[in-house]
Amino acid sequence: MMVIPAVDLKEGRCVRLSQGRMDQESVYSEDPLQMARHWESKGAERLHVVDLNGAFSGIPYHRSLIEEIARSVRIPVEVGGGIRNLETIEHYLSCGVGWVILGTTAIRNRRLTEEACHRFPGRVILSIDARGGKVAIQGWSDTVPLEAVDLVKEFEGMGFSAIVFTDIERDGMETGLNREMTRTLAQATSKPVIASGGVSRIEDIERLIPLERDGIIGVIVGRALYTGRFDLEDAIRLTKSK
Fold it and tell me: Looking at the domain that runs over 2-241, which CATH code has it been given?
């Protein structure tokens, strides 16, 4: 199981939000590029990079910074936030990004999503963000009348390489992963699932490891790493020892 550090970008800085609220941010670095290199040096196998400004506005805000991050580290990078057209997808994938993550676009523009999966096989990840089981889009600012598990089943044949599932109510709160909801969602699809939202202790990761048999291949960790609740190297060592 991969432990994937999150690098969330807001106005050129590396931040973490609480429950996705732009007015509740904690700034952890003025130099996201250095932070990406730091996590690579600690043994990260992948980075999860999100353009928060882009996610809320629908327009990429950190294109050049993300391009620089992707080209400056040797590990693969997955990128989400503000990706609403094929031009942006093609740009990111051509500049060294390993995968693009589609959330709002996947729900609002199925034709574009199908085209992206067709043109870039294995390089498009579906993001499902849920609040109380209901799917949220547009930087989590809007909730749509769709159940997360139903959406997973609906997209089963689309061609996504993986699914990132985030429990918004736990994201940035360090209250522990929603293990049961993540497991239920993973059991509803043949796609590999990456868990996100609420990791607070290394024990949260330890409890997730047995769910690899259900198709959970990784976990995204943000605030807990930045605040030193546990060390990335220790978490990686734990996942390799099981």
Answer: 3.20.20.70
Q: What is the pTM of this model?
A: 0.93
Q: Which residues are catalytic?
A: 8, 129
- For residues 109 and 122, what is the distance between their CA atoms, to the nearest angstrom? 19
Cβ neighbours, 10 Å, residue 140: 23
Is the Cβ–Cβ distance between 167 and 181 less than 8 Å? yes
pLDDT tens per residue across span 162-176: 999 988 765 555 567
Structure confidence by residue, pLDDT tens digits, 66-94 = 999 999 999 999 999 999 999 999 999 99
Helix residue ranges, H only, the chain: 32-41, 52-57, 63-72, 86-94, 104-108, 110-119, 148-154, 179-187, 202-208, 223-226, 232-241
Region 103-127: mean pLDDT is: 95
Cα–Cα distance list, 234 to 6, 60, 65, 178, 203 (Å):
17, 34, 29, 22, 11
Distance, CA of 189 to chain centre: 18
